[in-house]
Design a protein that fits this description.
- The complex is a heterodimer of chains A (110) and B (791).
- Chain A has a single domain, classed as Transcription Regulator spoIIAA, CATH 3.30.750.
- Chain A is built from four helices and six strands, in the order E-E-H-E-E-H-E-H-E-H.
- In chain A, strands 1, 2, 3, 4, 5 and 6 form a six-stranded mixed sheet that branches.
- Chain A is globular, with a radius of gyration of 12 Å.
- In chain B, helix 7 packs parallel to helix 8.
- The longest helix of chain B is centred in the first third of the chain and has 69 residues.
- Chain B contains 17 helices and 27 strands.
- Chain B is α+β, with helices and mostly antiparallel strands.
- Chain B is 42% helix and 24% strand.
- In chain B, strands 1, 2, 3, 4, 5, 6 and 7 form a seven-stranded antiparallel sheet that branches. Chain B has a five-stranded antiparallel sheet with strand order 9-8-12-11-10, with helices on both faces.
- Classes of the chains: A alpha/beta (110), B alpha+beta (791).
- Chains A and B meet through strand 4, helix 2 and helix 3 of A and helix 14, helix 15 and helix 17 of B.
Chain lengths: 110, 791
């Protein structure tokens, strides 16, 4: 898994490439917590290149969502692949995450 | 510390209460009687006192008269004698003198003449004979300083022409005593005319009266008193009153009653009245009075009211004490008696308590008498026997019931045992069925069996009613089906034949809704007949669901001559036939809503990706969740049959790939890499691969984190078995501590809000959702999880 970070005026865009699983979720965890602790509480996670996510990965996303929501910020996902989206649906996460199809769409909400 | 009263005083007890009640009644009655008799006695006493006082008054007056009469009679006689010319004034004086000497009361006597009446030269002439010490002296009255003509004792008889008693007076010159004078006029005839000549007087000392009055004692301080005509108190034992005017005393007191009484006295009347005290204020007293006729005086007796009632009061006080002591004695006596009466009741109560605690042999108190308590005791004895018998028979009944129940249990086992369990089908077919009875033995049934290697007979039915009769009917039906269904005979004829048999001997008018079909395993064709049963569902692989509105005829056992119609259906690949009984659609939830056909259809639609067992289990779970908190009302039966692929035959060998892993997180990569290879080889779509990967990651990490307590290296084996072209079986084995993830309740995941769900639960949820079936075994100290995934 690769993580790239891009800071814009509106928010921080985190792009995830590859597999987010039990072996590497801690990297994303560290990154997101760092951002949130430094008061970057507007975060967009770009998932179009993420082709696998396990429940460990979902846990990190859920944790980040909770922290950001508590800080009255915004945590948004975009570009979920079809398979990934299904996993979100099965877990019921589509109901609690704000998910947009494209990055442009997602950026409008900040 | 709690104070314990001796048992004798059982305050709440019958004995005490009845005694108390009884005594309270007595007290009340006594009180009324007491008050009444006190009042009545005082009235009687008053009447008696009035009578006594009146008598005493009259007696005293009579004594007065006895004294007064000689003082009147003697001068009267003398005056009468004066009319006799042979008797001279000197004779009169001599007799008078004798009288004065002899009579103790008469103190003196005077013969007073009119001016110049006796002697022409003497203006005054009044010889007065009187006691002086022990002698009798005589002196002449009348001088310028003592002009007796103006004195009452002279003037009044002269004016009134009749004898007069003067007001009492204190004679200073004469007797130095309180005196009273009786004056009687005498006359002489002058020229034939009776002319007033003078008066003859008798002075009487009032000492005698004083003595008589003082002798009178009424009660403790009652006294008598004598009042003159004018109201002067002549004598009274009370010094304060003597020589005072009674009318003035009365007026001073301003007592209306008293003034009235005094006026009546002075008017010479007789009476008895209550009044204020004469000698002091506010001393309620009684006054009895009567006139002394001769002198015009009045005599009264006064006695205080309280003294009159004093004795009575003392008497009643004594009575009251006697009564109170009697009451106390009575209280003791009645308590003792009632205790004696209630003692057997208390014993009976103790015996009853023991019986209540289960000692049916508790000894009841023995009573020789025939009273009510004895009857009660006997009745208790009878009850005790009955109870003993009842318990014995209850134990017997319970044992019999338990026997029946255990027999019912056996029946249930037999019934369940009759249902086919081995779901052996050719590899291109999959069959699963379940029956969950509402009571120990139910009226639902399902069945499947081969008519020949190519024909499978399936059936589902529901007997109207539940319990043993329904289950017997159900067994008969099944036996008939097995007997009648023969290869080559159309299913409608089989049904007709069963119907005929069932109608033959059906005294209870039982019937069964029945669906039966004969499946041609090679072609996927099914010939079926529906005898009034729920419509079957056809579930397509994409989740499309439909019902076959099959109407073959009435339920079996209703009409003997009924002819049945068969229909045909052809399975498409991967379609599932779902047969159910109304136990599903009629299931109720806590708010009395039916599960219903719509919910059944939509539930089935969401289970398209499951195999027949997964589908059946999921439906049962969903139903249980729906009717949580209610009792299962009807048997629930599901039979699911899937036609997988017509082209595949079971000759094809199963392919297996084994993966040996260590308990290290990095092995996850191994899983992912191997899955990719495997997917390519077995044509598994990417989405399925990802799902398998996800599930394996969850299960693998689960084992990693929870299965081992130590930090040693352990093996975790993964077997991938292609059991069919579109079906993969995965076995995961570890030698960690026992953990059955299937025991983790689905509710754990769903009952909580999303945010609070545990990620661990989410992993299990993924496993259940993404696999077609999940099984767990514990064998050889290993956890074995078997997953099946269709693709």
């Amino acid at each position: 898994m690769e993580i790239n970070e891009q800071k814009t005026d509106q928010c921080v865009i985190i792009g995830i490439t590859g597999r987010l699983d039990t072996t590497n979720y801690s990297i994303l965890e560290k990154k997101l917590m760092e951002l949130i602790d430094n008061h970057h509480d507007k975060i967009l996670v770009e998932c179009s290149k993420m082709d696998y996510v396990s429940s460990s990965g979902l846990r990190i996303l859920l944790m980040a969502l909770k922290k950001v929501t508590m800080a009255k910020g915004k945590f948004v996902l975009c570009g979920l692949q079809e398979n990934i989206r299904e996993i979100f649906e099965i877990s019921g996460f589509t109901n609690i995450f704000e998910i947009y199809t494209t990055q442009d769409e997602a950026l409008k909400v900040f | 510390m709690q104070i314990r009263f001796p048992k004798f005083f059982r305050f709440g007890g019958l004995a005490f209460r009845y005694s108390l009640f009884f005594l309270a009644a007595i007290l009340l009655i006594f009180f009324i009687a007491f008050v009444y008799s006190y009042g009545y006695s005082s009235v009687l006493l008053l009447e008696g006192a009035e009578k006594d006082a009146t008598i005493l008054t009259q007696q005293t007056i009579a004594r007065f008269e006895n004294v007064l009469q000689p003082a009147e009679l003697v001068p009267q006689t003398l005056v009468n004698a004066m009319e006799n010319p042979n008797i001279s004034y000197n004779d009169i004086l001599r007799i008078s003198r004798e009288f004065v000497v002899q009579d103790t009361v008469v103190f003196g006597s005077c013969l007073a003449f009119e001016p110049y009446g006796y002697d022409k030269d003497q203006y005054w002439y009044a010889p007065y004979i009187y006691e002086k010490g022990k002698n009798v002296s005589t002196r002449l009255l009348g001088s310028s300083s003592y002009d007796y003509f103006k004195m009452d004792w002279y003037r009044l008889p002269k004016l009134l022409h009749k004898p007069v008693w003067t007001e009492p007076y204190f004679d200073k010159g004469g007797g130095n005593a309180l005196m009273c004078t009786y004056s009687i006029p005498f006359y002489k005839t002058v020229n034939g005319i009776n002319t007033f000549a003078g008066v003859l007087t008798m002075d009487i000392s009032l000492d005698a009266f004083e003595r008589m009055v003082k002798e009178i004692k009424v009660y403790k301080s009652g006294y008598g008193f004598l009042v003159s005509r004018e109201g002067m108190i002549i004598t009274s034992p009370l010094m304060v009153m003597e020589n005072k005017n009674i009318l003035e005393i009365a007026r001073d007191r301003k007592g209306h009653e008293m003034i009235k009484a005094v006026k009546a006295m002075l008017a010479g009347k007789t009476g008895f009245t209550s009044t204020d005290g004469l000698e002091a204020k506010n001393h309620p007293s009684f006054l009895s009075y009567a006139p002394v006729a001769s002198t015009g005086w009045s005599f009264g007796i006064v006695f205080p009211a309280d003294e009159l009632l004093d004795d009575l009061f003392r008497f009643f006080k004594k009575i009251l004490w006697i009564f109170l002591y009697s009451i106390l004695a009575l209280l003791l006596a009645t308590t003792m008696i009632t205790r004696r009466l209630t003692r057997p009741i208390i014993r009976l109560v103790e015996a009853t308590k023991m019986i209540g605690q289960g000692d049916f042999h508790a000894k009841l108190p023995f009573r020789k008498s025939k009273d009510e308590i004895a009857q009660l005791t006997n009745a208790f004895g009878v009850m005790q026997d009955e109870l003993r018998n009842y318990v014995v028979s209850l134990q017997e009944t319970t044992m019999a019931k338990e026997k029946i129940e255990s027999e019912l249990h056996v029946a249930h086992t037999i019934q369940m045992g009759m249902l086919p369990r081995g779901f052996n089908t050719p590899s291109n077919w999959e069959l699963y069925a379940t029956l969950d009875p509402a009571k120990a033995v139910g009226g639902d049934l399902y069945d499947f069996f081969y008519l020949d290697p190519e024909h499978l007979c399936i059936a589902i039915g529901d007997v109207a009613g539940k319990g043993v009769p329904a289950s017997l009917f159900m067994m008969v039906t099944r036996t008939l089906l097995r007997a009648k269904a023969i290869a080559g005979i159309p299913i409608n004829e089989v049904m007709q034949s069963i119907n005929h048999e069932l109608c033959q001997d059906n005294p209870n008018q039982m019937f069964v809704t029945f669906f039966a079909g004969i499946v041609h395993l090679k072609t996927g064709e099914m010939e079926f007949c529906n005898a009034g049963h729920n419509y079957p569902y056809i579930l397509g692989p994409g989740g499309d669901i439909r019902q076959i509105k099959a109407k073959g005829g009435l339920p079996l056992g209703v009409n003997e001559t009924m002819s049945y119609r068969s229909e045909k259906f052809c399975f498409k690949p991967r379609e599932i036939l779902v047969l159910t009984t109304d136990g599903i659609t009629d299931a109720l939830n806590a708010s009395n809503d039916f599960f219903g056909e719509t919910k059944l259809a939509s539930s089935l639609a969401s289970m398209a990706n499951k195999n027949t067992k997964g589908l059946t289990d999921s439906l049962i779970i969903e139903l249980k969740r729906f009717s949580l908190g209610t009792e299962q009302a009807d048997d629930i039966t599901i039979l699911a049959l899937q036609y997988k692929n017509p082209s595949v035959t079971n000759e094809r060998p199963m392919e297996t790939i084994q993966l040996k892993l260590k308990n290290q997180l990095s092995e996850l990569d191994q899983i992912a890499v191997n899955l990719e290879t495997l997917a390519e080889k077995w044509n598994i779509p990417g989405k399925i691969v990802m799902e398998i990967n996800l599930v394996l990651e969850e299960l693998f990490t689960n084992v990693l984190f929870y299965a081992f307590d130590d930090k040693d290296e352990h093996d975790i084996n993964l077997d991938f078995i292609l059991i069919d072209v579109h079906q993969l079986q995965i076995r995961i084995e570890d030698n960690g501590k026992p953990f059955n993830l299937l025991e983790k309740k689905v509710n754990d995941v769903f009952d909580k809000p999303l945010e609070d769900r545990q990620i661990g639960g989410l992993g299990i949820h993924f496993v259940r959702e993404m696999m077609n079936s999940v099984e767990y075994q514990r064998a050889d100290n290993k956890n074995i999880v078997i997953l099946t995934k269709n693709f």
